[in-house]
Design brief:
By secondary structure, the protein is α+β, with helices and mostly antiparallel strands. About 35% of the residues lie in helices and about 30% in strands. It has 4 helices and 6 strands; from the N terminus they run βαββββααβα. Strand 3 and strand 4 form a beta hairpin. The longest helix is centred in the first third of the chain and has 20 residues.
Length: about 130
């Protein structure tokens, strides 16, 4: 079954000052949603991404260079992700409509990215070597 990555976009630090109780409530909503997907056999994985420690690696003058990234002008960041299985794009859109991320803040949004199945490419590469 095709897999899709759901990238959870949000305004930087929108939840940093929320009271502990509100954060627990949010976490429970995400866990309930993902547990329901797991029980249906649709959840492949997913995690919240940490706000700090982010590094960007770019090539400059032919060499990889690490930086903290240009966050001051960032309008949104990716706060987490899920990988799910769905029959097609229409089904994944229907699944995403119930994701609590969309209801937690009007500025939150979800990017759906199909995951390419690389099994055939790996098999061809292995056969060529």
């Amino acid at each position: 079954m095709p897999q899709y990555m759901l990238l959870l976009h949000m305004v930087p630090n929108y939840n940093i000052d929320l009271p502990r109780e509100k954060m627990l409530e949010m976490t429970k909503r995400y866990m309930a949603w993902s547990d329901a997907l797991r029980q249906k056999g649709r959840l492949v994985g997913g995690e919240k991404l940490a706000a700090g420690g982010v590094r960007h690696i770019r090539v400059k003058d032919g060499k990889p260079v690490a930086s903290d990234g240009p966050y001051a002008e960032a309008k949104d960041v990716i706060g987490g992700y899920f990988v799910i299985e769905a029959r097609d794009g229409a089904e994944v859109e229907a699944i995403v409509q119930d994701c609590p991320h969309l209801a937690l803040a009007p500025t939150n949004w979800i990017e759906i990215r199909p995951v390419d199945d690389m099994a055939a490419v790996r098999k061809a590469a292995a056969a060529a070597s």
